[in-house]
Structures are given as C-alpha cells and as structure tokens.
Design a protein that fits this description.
The complex is a heterodimer of chains A (299) and B (246). Chain A has 299 residues and is an alpha/beta fold. Chain A is built from 12 helices and 13 strands. In chain A, helix 4 runs antiparallel to helix 6. The longest helix of chain A has 16 residues. The chains are: A alpha/beta (299), B mainly alpha (246).
C-alpha cells in the first residue's frame, strides 16, 4: 500500500458538538485532493487532525504510517493554515532562511523565492509590513521550505485576487508534476474542479461524496432541456418521460431536468410536441453544490 | 543544531528590533539614571555610592521590564496570531522553541546590562572593582530568571491588550515598591514591610550589597528562587489547563 495519509473512523467532538463524525479515507502518493464543503463542514478540523494539531476524540490519523506529531513526519510535511499571521520583526529573507534551517533537506532558497513570486525588494522588507496577498505568498514559501512530500493548504486562495489565484494554482500544478501529494480545502467548487484529481465533499462533519471531479460533477450538476411551448403541454406527461427528474416553468420556458439530455430530446421529438427554441443547459455547478449541501441539511 | 542556533538568533534580533524594548529597557532606565543622579541629588551624603546604587537599580529595572513585558506580550501575540500553532507543525520542538526564547532573552539581558553599566561609567564615572562589575552583572542576569518565569505567566493571558496592561501595572508596582526608583528607606513603612518580600527588592538588594563590597544576602537568593518555582508552576499549570480545554 502506498497510502501516505490514512484516516480511520476519525471523530472530533468539541463540547458535545460533533465537528467531524466517523470520517475515513486514505490518500495515495502524488494525489491532489480537494476537501470541499460549506463553512463549518469540518474541513479545517480534519486538516488540523491530519497535522497533529488536534487529537481526534476517537479514531486514528496516520501520515506515512506514523503519528503526525513525530519529528520525522514533520520533516516531510508543510502547511499553510488559516488565521496564521507572519512572525513580526523579521525580514522576509530571514524568515525563509530560518524555516529552511528547521529541515534536513530544505528547498533551495532561490527556488522557494521563484515559487512564491516574491520580488527582491519584498525579500528585504519586514514580513509584518507586507500586504495581505504578499503575506499569503510568504506563508506558501514557508509551507514549502522543507521541500515536503506532503503539502496541506487550508483555504489557500482566500483573499487573493484573480491573477494571484491563477498563478497560485499554476504553481500547484508544478508541484504536482514533481510528485508531491497535495491536500487543500476550499469552498470554491470551481477550484476543486480545475486542480484536484479527487474531491472529498464534506458536510456536517461527514463525507458525503468522494470521487474524481468528473464523477462528482455528474452527481451534482443537473442538466436540463428547455423550450417554449407553442400549445399547452401537460407537465404531468413530461414528468413521466424516461430520465426526467423534474419539470418546471420559468418565464414562459419549460425546463425539463434530466440526467440524460439526449434521451429527453429524442422523446420530445417522438411525441411530436409543438415546441420551439430548444436549449440544453449544463446547470451551474456551484448552484448544484449549494443545493446538495442544503438538501442534506434538511434531512 | 543549526535550527536551534538560527532560532536563538532570530529571537534575539526580534527583541532588538522591538521599539517597546528599546524604549522601556534601554532608554527609560538611562533617562531615569540621569534624572536621579544628575538632576535631583541635592542632599545625598555619599554621592559615589548613590550613583553606583542607582545604577544597579536601573539595570535591574531594565532587565525586569524586558523579562516581564517583552517576553510576556510576545508570547500572547504569537498565540493570538496563530504563530505558536504554526510552529508546532515544523520539526522544531516546542522545547527548542521555548529554550530559544529564553536564550534570546538572556542574550538581550546581558546586552542591556552592558549598555546600562557603560552608561553609568560614562555619565557619572561610576568606578567599581572588576570583581564588583562582574558579580553585580551576573547577579542581575541570573536574578532575571524569576522575572522570565513571570513573563511566561503573563504569556498565558488571552489578549494582547490585557497582557500589556496587566504586565505594565505589575512592572511599575514591583519597581516602585521594590525600591528601584527611590531608595527603600524613604518609602512609607508599610511599603517597606511588603517590599522586602517582593522579587524586585531582592533582585536589587543583591546588587546593592555587591557594590558596597558585601555579598548578596541568603534571603535574597532564596526568595528569588521561591518566586522562580512559584511562577514556573503557575504558568505551566495554567498552560496545561488551557491546552486541555481545546
């Protein structure tokens, strides 16, 4: 087995509130995994347990088959956490060198600087004087300082503008090409879709989906066929067509929600219904994601 | 080992670059020293002794301040900013992180002692024997340990504002009632009675004895030692409780 992260029935309870509830999964070397979910789904708590910063109430977390708190494990991981400000009174350059000194085989200084896109002038500045975006970049440099095999990124793109976001994910692609294993949390479905090999979807402390972005999307996104009726069509009749999940009317258009648009269109023609202006909608992923997590909430 | 050295260096640099430290621990004691030995020193009999005495007071005052305030506030800051959590995922152990802080502080104390002694020698031509300079410096350096422990106790506070407010008040009370600003003899007798039990008085008194050619009293040593253990126990007890609460 080349699973480098293993969670086995992990539960974390804070003052009788279950933040994470019997979560199990394993991650293989070289995977890029997105932990996705709405706020309060247990993403950060799970990351904190994987890092050994929180002890599970029950269950077990293993990194490289050892406890995450062990020194030899810490030498192989790097992380960017939420709500961590930079150390004060030191220059950017000094902090990076300090962090490099913690690890047995750190990433070369120049390479780190290149990865984070910090300029020569930035390096000479006091870290606490940097802008929010620059501080995030420094945080990223510190996560990579030890040239880690396993990288944790908790909401890495929060507060970044679109250009920095793009640059950031480009960097992640490069790290992936180097064979690094990367685990990141996000609540942007699009980011997870673009970058990850695998999405683990969290809600209310449990995993509700686990699969490739394509699989998850197929489950989450609902396609629909819409058209304008030339004469009245019975909604009931439409609902009885095969592969139809739902039918509704909005602004004079009828929407047929389906998991198989081709079949629906074929059926519509077969019935020789008087319709015009047929369109196929992919359905927005973000909406579907929101809907899914809300539905679970109601259950 | 390189990591530990780098960490000690980083901690030392951070204190030196802290404007609070420069103001409270270097500037203030020297300014006070000038005021109380150059400006208001009309009816003092043994001027030379007073100048050496007050130099010890101000040096102890400086070291006390950086031990309680610089250290205490910094610990709270590092925790509220998430820094101390972040350090826990690096291979640098908690103990090494803490030890580096203590070493950084001690280097800074040594530096403060040298600067203030030098200021005394330059401003008032204070002349002590080499043995007296060395012993009084060492006494103050070692005597700073209970105050470092008090700093870690301040460091258990939740908010930076509380920590800086509380540590400021403690610092001033300890300094004044320990006879650092004015000699104990001119204090109201109630303060004198309490003062002799305070760590600040015992730190100062050891040095005051040394410059008079005596040795520090055993009581000074024992009381400082007692405070050291008290503060260490208290702060580790509170820290453990806080960790258990998570």
């Amino acid at each position: 087995m080349d699973s480098i992260v293993v969670l086995d029935h992990v539960t974390k309870t804070f003052k009788n509130k279950k933040a994470v509830d019997h979560v199990s999964f394993s991650i293989k070397k070289g995977e890029v995994v997105a932990i996705l979910g709405p706020n309060g789904a247990g993403k950060t708590t799970t990351i904190m347990m994987m890092l050994g910063l929180l002890e599970p109430t029950s269950g077990e977390v293993r990194l490289f088959t050892s406890h995450p708190k062990e020194k030899k494990i810490r030498e192989r991981i790097g992380a960017m956490l939420q709500e961590v400000s930079v150390i004060d009174a030191l220059k950017v350059k000094e902090i990076i060198q300090l962090f490099r000194s913690y690890y047995p085989s750190p990433m070369p200084f120049e390479e780190l600087v290149a990865f984070t896109g910090l300029s020569k002038d930035d390096l000479k500045r006091r870290a606490d004087k940097l802008s929010g975006g620059q501080k995030r970049r420094l945080g990223f440099a510190l996560a990579l300082a030890g040239n880690p095999d396993l990288i944790f990124l908790d909401e890495p793109t929060v507060g970044l503008d679109i250009a920095s976001r793009k640059l950031f994910w480009h960097t992640i692609d490069e790290l992936k090409a180097q064979g690094k294993t990367i685990i990141f949390t996000t609540h942007y479905l699009q980011e997870a879709d673009d970058v990850a090999d695998r999405i683990i979807l969290f809600n209310h402390g449990t995993i509700i989906e686990d699969g490739t972005p394509v699989e998850i999307k197929a489950k989450l996104s609902k396609q629909s066929v819409s058209f304008v009726e030339s004469e009245e069509i019975s909604m009931k009749e439409l609902k009885q067509l095969p592969h139809v999940l739902d039918v509704y009317k909005r602004k004079d258009r009828i929407f047929v929600v389906t998991d198989h648009t081709d079949e629906v269109i074929a059926a519509l023609f077969e019935k020789k219904l008087k319709i015009s202006g047929i369109q196929i909608e992919q359905g927005r992923l973000d909406e579907a994601f929101e809907q899914l997590t809300e539905n679970r909430e109601a259950m | 080992m390189r990591a530990f050295q780098m960490q000690c260096k980083a901690e030392t640099i951070r204190i030196l670059r802290n404007p609070y430290f420069v103001f409270w621990s270097l500037l203030m004691p020297i300014v006070f020293y000038i005021i109380f030995t150059k400006v208001f020193n009309t009816n003092i009999q043994d001027k030379q002794e007073w100048q050496a005495h007050y130099l010890m007071s101000m040096t102890a005052f400086s070291v006390m301040g950086s031990a309680i305030m610089t250290l205490g506030i910094r610990i709270v800051e590092e925790r509220t900013k998430g820094w101390s959590v972040f350090m826990r995922i690096t291979p640098l152990s908690d103990q090494a992180f803490f030890a580096a802080k203590m070493i950084g502080q001690t280097v800074i104390h040594l530096f403060s002692i040298l600067i203030i002694f030098l200021a005394g020698a330059l401003i008032n031509q204070v002349t002590l024997t080499a043995f007296e300079w060395l012993m009084s410096g060492l006494w103050i350096l070692l005597g700073s340990l209970p105050f470092l422990a008090l700093g870690t106790l301040v460091g258990t506070m939740k908010r930076v504002d509380t920590a800086s407010g509380v540590s400021n008040v403690i610092y001033m009370i300890l300094a004044i009632s320990g006879g650092m600003w004015m000699p104990m003899e001119i204090m109201p007798s109630i303060i004198q009675k309490i003062g002799v039990w305070l760590p600040s008085y015992n730190l100062g008194n050891g040095a005051w004895e040394i410059i008079r050619g005596n040795s520090p009293e055993w009581g000074n040593f024992l009381i400082l030692l007692g405070y050291f253990f008290l503060f260490v126990l208290l702060s580790s007890y509170i820290r453990r409780k806080q960790e258990a609460a998570v």
